[in-house]
Amino acid sequence: MIERINRLVAEVESLKAASLVEVEEIRLKYLSKKGLVSVLFDDFKSVPADTKREVGLLLNDLKNKAHQKIDELKSGFDQDETASLAKLDLTRPAENLQPGSRHPLSIVRKQIIDIFGRIGFTVADGPEIEDDWHNFSALNFTPDHPARDMQDTFFIATNPDILLRTHTSSVQIRTMETTKPPIRMIFPGRVFRNEAISARAHCIFHQVEGLYIDKNVSFADLKQTLMYFAKEMFGESTKIRLRPSYFPFTEPSGEMDVSCNICGGVGCNICKYTGWVEILGCGMVDPNALENCGIDSQTYTGFAFGMGIERITMLKYQIKDLRLFFENDVRFLKQFTGAF
């Protein structure tokens, strides 16, 4: 970790900006809630005790240098620019498409959050740069587990323990480590896998995972929760079916299909003439995953599920090419409306 901090210090010291907008982008990159410096502070709790003091001093020094560098860059621009920048929100969706236009992934992400919010699920977030423990090991992936090969992972070359998260399950682990049951949360976010880019796959995509842990949670609770979600998202006439599957972190596990909303379950090319479309994986949280996070598996049980936002959006809007979500083509984007 010391090496990572030193590299970031050198990077911060060499920063330059041609405008105040670039200064703000630098601030977001390094000092926002999900910025590079914040991620290091999140990882600080896993630092060995014998180096904690040294690493802590270095981290504080890095944070101070980042603030100083941003102040230094701002000082190179006049006060009118500074005042106008204060009113600029770089996180807002584009407003110049047409009234109400939004990115379809943002619309569906909000709908998913709203649906689960109505039955008591809150939202949690976590870092996109993860370590092996939170992304794999705590989720019951042993070092030689074949399921690791199913997720073609982007590792950081200088440190094979650090990677771009392959699922938002890592946030589930972070939540279970720091929160006592009952836990009822969903975890939306961007994830990364080394996939060939095509109409059906991409190296970047978005997930929403859910976790409910309490006393006496059963598979029946999972089924009813997912049935409620499916009907709210796709319509009251939607049917679901659960098929046995396998995930290292849940047992029993299943895949959930919904009746095709294009053909009404009769069969079409979207559902491959089966009448069903797979939308998510789910299951009861494996006792090992609970124990790895300090939760007594004899007292508590829970369920988890995960879905791709792109998959839900493609079904909802009958989009046939996943690459359209990433091309920023105004002709595509201005077809969608949604309120935030």
Explain what the structure shows.
By secondary structure, this protein is an alpha+beta fold. The chain folds into 2 domains: 2-86, no CATH class; 104-333, BirA Bifunctional Protein, domain 2, CATH 3.30.930.10. The protein has helices at residues 2-13, 20-31, 36-43, 52-74, 79-86, 104-117, 132-135, 147-150, 169-178, 219-234, 287-292, 309-317, 330-333, and strands at 122-123, 129-131, 155-156, 159-164, 183-192, 204-214, 240-247, 250-259, 276-285, 301-308. A hairpin with a 2-residue loop joins β3 and β4 (159-164). α2 runs antiparallel to α4 and α6 (104-117) packs across α12. The two termini are 39 Å apart.
Secondary-structure map with pairings?
Blueprint: H1 2-13, H2 20-31, H3 36-43, H4 52-74, H5 79-86, H6 104-117, E1 122-123, E2 129-131, H7 132-135, H8 147-150, E3 155-156, E4 159-164, H9 169-178, E5 183-192, E6 204-214, H10 219-234, E7 240-247, E8 250-259, E9 276-285, H11 287-292, E10 301-308, H12 309-317, H13 330-333
Parallel strand pairs: 1-5
Antiparallel strand pairs: 2-4, 3-4, 5-6, 6-10, 7-8, 8-9, 9-10
Helix pairs in contact: 1-4, 2-4, 6-12
Can you give me a brief rundown of this structure?
By secondary structure, this protein is of the alpha+beta class.
Structural class: alpha+beta
Strand content: 15-25%
Give the integer mean of the pLDDT values: 85
CATH topology assignment of the largest domain: BirA Bifunctional Protein, domain 2
CATH structural class of the largest domain = Alpha Beta
General shape: globular
Gap from first CA to last CA: 39 Å
N to C succession of SSEs:
HHHHHHEEHHEEHEEHEEEHEHH
The CATH homologous superfamily of the largest domain is termed Bira Bifunctional Protein, Domain 2
- Count of discrete domains: 2
Number of helices: 13
Q: Strands of the largest sheet, in order across it?
A: 1-5-6-10-9-8-7
How many strands appear in the DSSP assignment? 10
